[in-house]
Amino acid sequence: MKEPGRPLWRKALPDFPVRRYTVIGGTNSWSEWLAAWPALLHRGDEATVRAFEAEAARRCGCRHAIAFAAGRMALYAILEALGLRPGDEVILPGYTCTVVPNALVYRGMQPVYADISPTTFNVDPRCVEALVGPRTRAIYMQHTFGVSCDTAGLRAIAQKHGLATIEDAAHSLGATHRGAPHGSLGDAAFVSTDRTKVINTHLGGFATTNDDAVAARLARIRDRAASLSGLDSRRVAFSFLAEFVLRHPNALWLGRPALGALRRMGLLFHWTADEGMDRLPDGYPYPSRLEPAQARIGLSQFAALEENLRHRRSLARWLEDRIGWYGDTLPGAFDEQAWLRYSFLVRDREAFVERFGARIELGIWFPTVIFGRETGTEAVGYRQGMCPVAEKVAQHIVNLPTHRRIRPALLESLWERHGDWLRGELLRN
Ligand SMILES: Cc1ncc(COP(=O)(O)O)c(C=O)c1O
């Protein structure tokens, strides 16, 4: 991998005060940032959302895509569109983001947790099969961190027991599994396009399906969902524009307080966190629609998706050549994955953060089994001890972002300093 040299003016300056990379705002390029400005000035119309949906469907190899204001809202809509009802059980990986079981709990459904592989961090189909019972209605196929789960194994179980499959491609837009795009592997699927994902519409997501009847039900749910107010729509576009600049690695020392000030002034838009909730949020409509402004931003990012994925895959390959975490454990080829984050286990996570966190704001993903809930997991049906492998993984997981602001030279310099230490710290199974 070749990294262009630093420009002369940069060489002349020290990294004042320190160059630090965040996990947010790195999905994009300056050209996508420029393309987002009109979204701030003109709200746009639903035709832009339809164009975004058409492109999303094409990218996922599906006949239909239906956009929502968040991936979790797309999931909430899918549960209804598949005809799941209160009391039904869905088997989830015991290693997920809490917004996933939250969506089930909001519908009165019961999440059931299956343990995971300690290498790929995806659900282990053998654990899933052992949990199928009389109230099981669906199996949840989550591609954690952008790496394919064993969809063939999970679909075989679903077929044997007459269950639906819901594919969670929140982390894996653009990945394929033995040639078939993520998003096309279950009865219905969804992708997240929030600011930490493969593409970034600040917040957002879409559902996909090849089933015409399910698609019609999803479209009905979207059509009766509320839109954001005109002001909030502009705040979303403004948040996207501001974060890209203020989270620039060279400007973070100034950017962070500036973002804090913008937040206090009410200029940035985020959902009130529903992570800790066990009933439908009441501060905003759930689900809500994706805004035309976001669809416009999303379309410009779809146009650069190949380049985006090439970068992520080449960083993941670089790391794999040195760390060798995944070896031959992946279902499908290395370069088929989206590699949203390259993840592995270390003995001492605090020591890892001390070394690598000085240059990258790691924001490590899934350091708890139900990420987003430190405690109170019983509210979404998880009790300590249910998934021992996942619990150990959560204690030792670390992951590195692969977005386009992370340059090979950064990894090289980190590796030069800490590579030998890291090799000795890996916690292999
Ligand atoms: C595995 C997984 N599924 C679903 C989601 C929901 O996506 P969103 O944040 O767009 O609602 C997330 C959120 O990060 C996630 O990590």
If you had to describe this structure to a student in words, what would you say it looks like?
The longest helix is centred in the last third of the chain and has 19 residues, at 305-323. The model has no long low-confidence stretch (mean pLDDT 92). Strand 7 and strand 8 form a beta hairpin. This protein is of the alpha/beta class and 429 residues long. Helix 2 (30-41) runs antiparallel to helix 11. The chain contains 15 helices and 13 strands. It has helices at 8-12, 30-41, 46-59, 71-81, 99-106, 125-131, 151-161, 212-224, 230-246, 252-264, 292-303, 305-323, 349-356, 388-396, 408-425; strands spanning 64-68, 89-93, 96-97, 110-114, 136-142, 164-168, 176-177, 180-181, 188-192, 205-209, 341-345, 370-371, 397-401. Strands 1-10-9-6-5-2-4 form a 7-stranded mixed β-sheet, sandwiched between helices. Strands 3-12 form a two-stranded parallel sheet. It has a single domain (1-429), classed as 3-Layer(aba) Sandwich (Aspartate Aminotransferase, domain 2), CATH 3.40.640.10. Bound molecules: pyridoxal-5'-phosphate. Residues 70-72, 96-97, 99-100, 142, 168, 170-171, 192, 194, 205 line the site of pyridoxal-5'-phosphate (PLP).
